[in-house]
Every structure is written in C-alpha cells, then in structure tokens.
Amino acid sequence: MLRVVLVDGLMPVFFGAAAGFAGAAVAGSLIQSMLYGASVYDPLVVAGMAGCLLFTAVVACVVPAWRVSRVDPMQALRSE
C-alpha cells in the first residue's frame, strides 16, 4: 500500500515537472534577450528548483502513505 500511494501521489509531480521544464525552456529562449549578464539555463538554479519540488512532493506523499500502511487491511475493508 505504501508504494501504491507514493506512486499515485508522485506521478503527477513528475509529469508536471517535465511540462514545467519544457515551458521554462521555451519561455527562457523568448526572454533571453531581455536578461543582461544572466543565464536562462543555469544548472544550479534548475537543480535547486527540481530538488525543492521533489522534496516537497515526497514529504506531502509520505505522510498519508505512512498512515495508510499502518491500517489493518481487513479492518479497512470491513468499514466500507
């Protein structure tokens, strides 16, 4: 159950991050001429943003997944 909840919770995060990276690449190429002395594709910034996003998503998914893993499956099925 722990794996199922984590995968279901983190899958939209990975799809959203991929779409965000694609959108950032397009937007970065459009505004690159307006930036003076700054790189649009700074690897440190991109890695930091991806790390913060992944950390927040994992923490947000681990708490409910941990709670689900502590419930007895037979008791959960009986209550429904």
Describe the structure.
This protein has 80 residues and is mainly α. 80% of the residues lie in helices and 0% in strands. It has three helices and no strands. It has helices spanning 2-31, 43-69, 73-79. Helix 1 (2-31) runs antiparallel to helix 2 (43-69). The longest helix is centred in the first third of the chain and has 30 residues, at 2-31. It is elongated. The model has no long low-confidence stretch (mean pLDDT 85).
List the helices and strands and how they pair.
Blueprint: H1 2-31, H2 43-69, H3 73-79
Helix pairs in contact: 1-2
Q: What's the rounded overall pLDDT mean?
A: 85
What is the rounded Rg?
19 Å
Structural class: mainly alpha
The portion of residues forming beta strands comes to under 5%
The H-and-E topology, N to C, reads as HHH
**End-to-end Cα distance:** 17 Å
Number of helices: 3
User: Largest beta sheet, briefly?
Assistant: none
